[in-house]
Amino acid sequence: MHVSDDLMAERPAEGPQAPRKKSFKGTGFLRLWTGESISLAGTEITFMAIGIIAVTTLAATPWQMGVLEAAESAAVLFLGLSAGVWADRYERRRIMLVANLARSVLVLAIPVLFWFDLLNMAVLYVVVFLVGALSLLFDSAMSAYLPRLLPRSQLERANSWMEGSASVGMVAGPGLAGILVQIVSAPVALVVDSVSYLMSYSTLAGLPKAPPSADPADEEGHGAESGKDGAEETHRAQVLKGLRVLVRDRYQRPMTLAAAHFNIFHSMFFAVNVLFLLTVLDFSPGLLGATSMAGGVAGLVGASCTPFLTRRLGQGPSLILVYAVPGLAAVLVPLSAGAGREVAVVLVSVSTFVYTFAVVVNLVISDTVKQTLVPDHLLGRVTASTRFISWGVQPVGALLGGWLGTRFGLIEVMVTASVGLVAAALWPLFSPVRTLIILPGDGDGDGDGDGNGEPEKGPAPVEGGDGRV
């Protein structure tokens, strides 16, 4: 695999005697992690502050708030696959820089238009859609960039750091947005948010470049993407190539189907979760927020425990376990109906903690497996294709949860969703994923970081660039 001279200069040398755990110092990862964490916090603040502006300034109706929520999801459906092509076609650090700069400008446009009395809901729809699209592009490039920055032996620990900061950002971001809005007003909060993207830009600017890797088939002069086809045809061919790899890959296919299955029932459960907590359990908004804080703590604990868990059980068995656990945790919420206030608070907090712990471990393992086994020149497209499928089904689950809750009751739909969540573990259980014990580079530093290796059991999932297994 081709790796740029810039990255090779920063990547620490590996050898057969390398220690199991290496410091991130000198790799550039800490700079990437800082920039990604700031960017993530900025995105969370953006969506929360925009929602507050819609309600308090523009007096948005429930329907308009629904459209605003859907605008973010629409970015995944309309641009999800293209984001992967761009992440593989162009220099990845530059993509992250451009995404941060563009998001800064878009977010800043809202307070400017507000101060000139030109702000309306249509503007918010467009900004939310574009920020969602740029966030997707940033994430696709960042996920594909990480294996170029670090050797395989450090990918799991690096992904643990990433998911740990993500879980904290998802809890702290909305809270910080609320504080900023309370202190300085929503428009000024978005100015601060715009600056956060510029801070992320300046942090990432010091990273080494990562030019796109060449397709091995193209290097031999007979790649499917070579030639002088039109831009649209080439783009379509590259999108289909990423999807073909995903469909044919003996590991990525069941993992993606499991994620899609899980997200349908996850969305079904959380479509009615807040309504259940506020109306059935009679939680106050403050108590609701306090119990959700357990998720932030669980994210940090889960991220730090993942390497230990995979060393003891293996990647595949660990993944099966963390797919089954969230459903068992989720059912504690409907079971708390009729219990006393103290018991209900404990059950909901435990449910939130265990659920989030398992999801974070799941994300760390899934990202590490993908980054280790998928060739670098296809990684952006496979990542985007995975998210297109697994995230694209979420509106279906949410609508189904709302409809079932209205027709049969909140407790019934939450129990059904909990059972469905447990069933997601069947995909990795009855597939080659269960045989994944040790990934390349998980030993004593023997990985070469080329993203094209072989697990301890079973052949490499992708060979060359044609997506065969």
Automatic annotation (TrEMBL):
It is found in: Cell membrane. Gene3D superfamilies: MFS general substrate transporter like domains. It is a multi-pass membrane protein. It holds the Pfam family MFS_1. Residues 1-22, 210-234, 444-469 are annotated as: Disordered. Residues 444-453 have a biased composition (Acidic residues). SUPFAM superfamilies: MFS general substrate transporter. The chain crosses the membrane at residues 38-60, 66-85, 97-116, 122-146, 258-281, 287-308, 320-337, 343-365, 410-430. Residues 30-435 form the Major facilitator superfamily (MFS) profile domain. InterPro entries: MFS, MFS_dom, MFS_trans_sf. It comes from Streptomyces rutgersensis. This is MFS transporter. Signal peptide: none annotated.
